[in-house]
Amino acid sequence: MADNKRDYYEVLGLDRSATDDQIKKAYRQLAKKYHPDLNPGDQQAEENFKEVNEAYAVLSDADKKSKYDQFGHAGVDPNFGAGGYGGGYGGGFNVDFGDFGDIFSSFFGGGGRRANPNAPRQGADAEINIVVSFEEAAFGCEKEVNVTRIETCSDCKGSGAKEGTSPKVCSACQGTGQVRVQQRTPFGVMQTQRTCDRCGGKGKTIEHPCKTCNGKGKVRRTTKQTIKVPAGIDDGQTFVIRGGGHCGENGGPSGDLRINVTVRAHSVFERRGYDVWCEFPLTYAQAALGDEIVVPTLDGNVRYNIPEGVQPGDVFKLKGKGIYRVNTSLRGDQYVKVVLEVPKNLSSKQKELLREFDKSLNENNYKNRRSFFDKVKSAFMGDL
Fold it and tell me: Residue 174 and residue 170: Cα distance in Å, rounded?
């Protein structure tokens, strides 16, 4: 029941003044935190994940959010009484406020045009979250996912009527979807039109509802689908499958399926835009003398010749070894940063050899050291 549900703003850790961006940001953080792929076997995390998705489905939809802000869960829960939120499938929330708005509008010659409830309308977007590895994001992949969406009932073909029957013309409004109402006002008796309560403005009623969809014409189904993750997708990005969302109303097109992507961190590589960075440790001898090293890349190991005299922090580039740019054949580069590994646990003999070697060097062997002391001498010794 709706009465037992937590407040949707509380679920997302927000107050009621939260903006759309704040709602989306809070959702992505919590969806990532409780995602089943990141919390295998944690039943509570799975429940929290479902709760977060339910809250976001309402608060990210302007129409549903407005109804929720006004009426709470009663405004969006299809099980909350007969006057609930359109069976949960995108219908209108019908509340009679005495038609004051209609009276006022008629008095000033308006009467306003109402939206046709039988006009085709596009369905809402569906949304899922997936987790991919660093390599899957870099090269693209296929993922099998569960997608829950609202579909046209296959038994009644969306009519809502039991097989062998069909909706009937509403006897209250004679199929117009509108009824005339007379009301006494300070200005006299005024006649207005309002949506028919019996048929909800559709002009038709269902005497024998379809048992599969309970007369709604739509059902909620979860199906397994294989989706293609584009190469180059980054952590926190979303891609869209057109027409993969909830079915439309009255023959309208389906909404889209939005896939939010979380990319697992890599133990070696770091992504910066479409480039890949990593650090490579060199010994003192390799840095001083140069060497041929084997560098890991997303495409496998490659050989690279380190020049002699390379310094800690120096960076070299492997062209075209980065991430694919989305929907292109172009790739970024890989940058490898040199890290000098100072040896530890030296034996007495090794220490003595190192001291002898150090004594054999002079300032000509240390470009940066010589430059540093020249600067120090110029800055401080000149004052003496």
Answer: 5
> What's the one-letter identity of residue 220?
R
Q: Say if pTM beats, i.e. exceeds, 0.70.
A: no
Question: What is the CATH topology of the domain spanning 270-383?
Answer: HSP40/DNAj peptide-binding domain (2.60.260)
User: In this predicted model, what pLDDT tens digit does every residue of 306-338 receive, in sequence order?
Assistant: 999 999 999 999 999 999 999 899 999 999 999
Closest CA to 207 of 164, 152, 165, 249: 165
Domain residue limits, the chain: 1-95, 270-383
Residues 6+ apart with CB under 8 A from 155: 163, 210, 211, 212, 213
Q: Do the Cβ atoms of 137 and 265 come closer than 8 Å?
A: no
What φ, ψ does residue 3 adopt, rounded to 5°?
A: -65, -25
**b/e sequence 225-241, b meaning 16+ C-beta within 10 Å:** eebebebbbeeeeebeb
State the architecture of 1-95 in CATH terms: Orthogonal Bundle (1.10)
Question: Rounded to whole angstroms, how far apart are CA atoms 259 and 252?
Answer: 22
Sign of the dihedral through C-alpha 12, 13, 15, 21? negative
> Is residue 130 within 8 Å of 260, Cβ to Cβ?
yes
